[in-house]
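Continuing the series of single-chain predictions for the mutant panel. This is the parent chain; the variants come on the following pages.
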Amino acid sequence: MHIFDLTALELGRAIKKKDIGVKEALEAQLARIEKLDGSYGCYLTVLREQAYARAEAVQKRIDAGEALSPLAGVPVGVKDLICTRGIQTTCASKMLEGFVPPYDATVVEKLYDAGAVVTGKLNMDEFAMGSTSETSHIKKTCNPWDVSRVPGGSSGGSAAAVAAKEAFYTLGSDTGGSIRQPAAFCGVTGIKPTYGSVSRYGLIAYASSLDQIGPIGCDAADCAAALEIISGYDRRDSTSVNRPVPAYLSSLSDNIKGMKIGIPSDWLGGGIDPQVRQRILDAAKTFESMGAFVEEFPMPVIEYAVPAYYIIASAEASSNLARYDGIKYGFRADGCEDLASVYRASRSQGFGAEVKRRIMLGSFVLSSGYYDAYYKKAQQVRTLIKQAFNSAFEKYDFILAPVAPTTALKSGESLDDPLKMYLGDIHTVSINLAGLPAIALPCGFDNEGLPVGMQLIGNDFCEQTVLGAAYAYQNVTDFHKKRPAVKED
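Parent structure:
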């Protein structure tokens, strides 16, 4: 079997059995990146010397019999807004070109402790603001299923890398669907954990009350193994929740008989592509054939999720990005005569159009005279959305829904129409507003051969439920095993 036919866990098992060496796996991975990334644009930074040094150290730990993660020795890519000590971290922005963090994010520390080998930093929408990975200042990422289409965003590089097997698994971040939507567009599996379950220390913030780091992999089992590594309390993160990390991988079960599954009927109405709707209903039938009870239910409050999300996220972005002023670090404009002109010119030239749009929107909704009308109202809607989910979970074990209303868009299709891009987040942003876990996984293809994604949404800290349901579904389907035809294959 070819190494790239393996999942991350299968490769981890082969490494532990000494069938494949850590250096051998890394060499194959770097060769594939070199061969394919010119076509797909997943990586902003590729690590070679550091990765080889790490591979050698991990092999010694394995040979010494050290108890490591099932993913020890497996190459992994990291989204370029997660700080990596001594490695450039840009957020795909001109503002942070050349910025080299002096410390590792907690999730990176955990990867290293578990024996991971980081191959590089992955492309994204600038400061995670976008749904297509087209707002990156540095390069364009293409969808491996069709290079004329976007991979989704903002974690487009993370999802596309897994789809093209330029990484066996990756870390992304999800503020309003930024793991789940690109996972759906690229036909891979990605989980957004409960807010507070994974440390945000070292994650360069977009919207602090919404951002959450999570893994993207070939299937639910890969995601479970990676999530087990990166989860856990961190005293350096004030939003981190102090609770034991479940055994996500070993507790996976394919038995969902008797589970109750709800489908919000409001997400299956107008605006959703009929093919996407049909794939969701087909998935519901599959769950029913496995012994689960499925029914639709009304959840009208989610109609207000998109405006509430963009008000809150933009308000937090305007605050978080105020630190980029051309003084302490990051891009500084030349030819400025005074401090005010340094601020103005550096921010005008350093940020892209979408980032500036959200900063201005956020500053507006927080301004005197508009705070109560917009920001306060959005926070009230957020409370209503959380209450609606709480009511749903009194009746259902998890919720089944589409990830996006369409399959992958053509490049440039929504870039000139921000409102269209924002409305594409209608199925994902409410989960971030409520802080809930949700996993995205492929559930079929449209008539053009593009992947369709569904998401399984759980109650707070019920990752085991959604991972188990995804694992059960993938045991009886093969959509997650299909891969785009790429040059090396």
